[in-house]
Design goal:
heterodimer; A: 70 residues; mainly alpha; flat; B: 467 residues; alpha/beta; eleven-stranded mixed β-sheet
Chain lengths: 70, 467
């Protein structure tokens, strides 16, 4: 897999989303660690997007409709 | 009956003692309860000693024995359960301070099945908080403190089933139930010198167990031998209406003689690159021994982001499983500083999660086809022996060697067993794992049994805890 650099704008945008939702629980040091985590999320995302799949490559979704009672 | 008569005896040996009347379930329970009380705290292995319930179950187990009607091989045998398994009326903490006093009013299916088999619950065992799902990077990540290995208290038991590993390795219980989402059974098996079995996904009901990642979580045994793992798995496996992911395929442990059997094994190309030197030496010695009764081919998985797939699924599902907890700021009450801000995972997109699930389908097919000619793939259980109690273990593990086996095995839901392969120069256990195709637990157990038939590592125990 390629070790491409993560676009800082992507990380900035994700950081802002996290700050909006969880900012009340985070001090600046913790927010900096979250940003490191977001860089990892962005890198993993690039690794996933580099894999080419066919339209018919579907996940193993097994949904069983529930019917309870009689 | 003395402790030295029963401690570090296998489940199979204890079962013979119980059935023949040489040991009573109450005697066994009292010996192991005493050890849990006295020795457990030294290793931060125990959350709750379930004395009252244990003695009640043990007394109940006496009568059928006297009538010659043992319910199973586990009849009258003490055990411990990781503290993410619900137990009616007994606290179930998930290893986390915010849930420390929470009590459920029902038993997890695994607990119920073991009770039906006659086993005796003696303890709820320590674990990494929330099964490590918040991203811990060092062992001090539980309100019970870091899991300390009976082989050396300054080293880590592995996790997240830390107490399950320590308790069996210290002779506090003959077997324990752990859970694995990614590495949480094989890691303590490796660090504590035990047999640990990660069953096929869906083999064992997770009803009543804490959910970390619905499509990755598995429950399985930690024991002294691979043979014991087979015995315990037979008792806990099976379809459960309360867990829709459980398989219809029944599991019966195949106990047949394997002393003359030969096997076909494979090893991943580069499996011994970038691992600790003691691990490399011990694994190479194990491979040399395996060649006496098995062929070993070198194989290679195609280039795919195995770890990225498993990490994305785990992180996205755990973000949902603990959404309310996170929204309420619950992580601030956790022990490990790095567990207090697990919020980056909330930014994983649905598109990436589904992409990971789609790649997982390919991984499952690739693994199945690649492994079809073989009984198992062999590899070191971990890249290192136990790390120091104050070390960042992720730097040690991920910095040097990729965990392709763990990523493939857990994302594809494949069974694997780890058994001890020797000791490091510092006297710490190392492990070797055998991973099979889905539902092939009997094959991987058979290979591990054949290996243990020819080795003595599993008969060695920490001197500090000998009775």
């Amino acid at each position: 897999m390629s070790e491409s650099e993560v676009d800082p704008q992507v990380t900035d945008a994700m950081s802002e989303l996290v700050r909006l939702r969880y900012g009340d629980f985070l001090n600046e040091d913790q927010m900096a660690e979250v940003r490191t985590g977001l860089e990892a999320v962005a890198k993993v995302s690039e690794e996933l997007r580099a894999v080419k799949l066919e339209n018919g490559d579907e996940p193993f979704f097994v949904f069983k409709p529930y019917r309870g009672g009689s | 009956m003395k402790a030295s008569d029963v401690v570090f005896k296998t489940v199979r040996q204890l079962s013979e003692l119980v059935k023949s009347g040489q040991a009573s379930p109450v005697e066994l329970a009292e010996i192991f309860l005493d050890r849990l009380d006295r020795i457990g705290p030294k290793y931060n292995a125990v959350v709750t000693v379930t004395r009252e319930r244990a003695l009640e179950q043990a007394k109940k187990a006496e009568q059928p024995i006297r009538s010659g009607r043992a319910l199973s091989m586990l009849h009258g045998i003490p055990y411990g359960g990781k503290d993410l398994l619900s137990t009616a009326g007994i606290p179930t903490s998930w290893g986390a301070t915010p849930f420390r006093d929470r009590v459920f009013d029902y038993d997890a299916t695994v607990i119920t099945k073991l009770e039906k088999a006659g086993a005796v619950l003696c303890a709820k065992l320590a674990m990494v908080e929330l099964a490590g799902g918040m991203g811990y990077r060092q062992p001090n990540a539980s309100f019970t403190g870091p899991g300390r290995s009976p082989w050396d208290r300054e080293t880590w038991t592995g996790g997240s089933s830390s107490g399950s590993g320590a308790a069996v390795a210290a002779g506090l219980v003959p077997f324990a139930i752990g859970s694995e989402t990614w590495g949480s059974i094989l890691s303590p098996a490796n660090n504590c010198g035990l047999a640990g079995l990660r069953p096929t996904y869906g083999r064992v009901s997770r009803h009543g167990a804490m959910a970390l990642s619905w499509t990755l979580d598995k429950l399985g045994p930690l024991c002294l031998t691979a043979d014991d793992c087979g015995i315990v798995l037979e008792a806990i496996a099976g379809q459960d209406r309360e867990d829709s992911t459980t398989t219809e395929q029944a599991f019966r442990y195949n106990e047949s003689d394997i002393s003359e059997k030969t096997f076909r094994l494979a090893i991943l190309k580069g499996a011994l690159d970038d691992v600790d030197e003691d691990v490399r030496v011990n694994t190479q010695a194990a491979i040399n021994l395996l060649r006496r009764f098995a062929s070993i081919d070198e194989i290679e998985f195609p280039d795919l982001p195995y770890e990225a797939v498993t990490r994305t699924i785990l992180s996205a599902e755990s973000a949902s499983a603990f959404e309310e907890f996170m929204d309420e700021g619950g992580p601030a009450g956790l022990t490990a500083p790095e567990d207090r801000h697990p919020y980056a995972r909330s930014a994983i997109s649905a598109q990436d999660y589904i992409k990971a699930l789609r790649i997982r389908t390919k991984i499952g097919r690739i693994a199945n086809d690649l492994m079809a000619p073989y009984d198992a793939i062999v590899a070191p259980s971990r890249a290192t022996p136990a790390t120091r109690i104050d070390m960042d273990f992720r730097g040690v593990i991920l910095g040097s060697a990729k965990d392709t086996m763990g990523a493939v095995g857990n994302s594809a839901g494949l069974p694997a067993i780890s058994v001890p392969s020797g000791f490091s120069q510092d006297g710490l256990p190392t492990g070797i794992q055998f991973m099979g195709r889905a539902y092939d637990e009997n094959r991987v157990i058979a290979v591990a049994r054949a290996y243990q038939l020819r080795t003595d590592w599993h008969n060695q125990h920490p001197t500090a805890v000998m009775p």
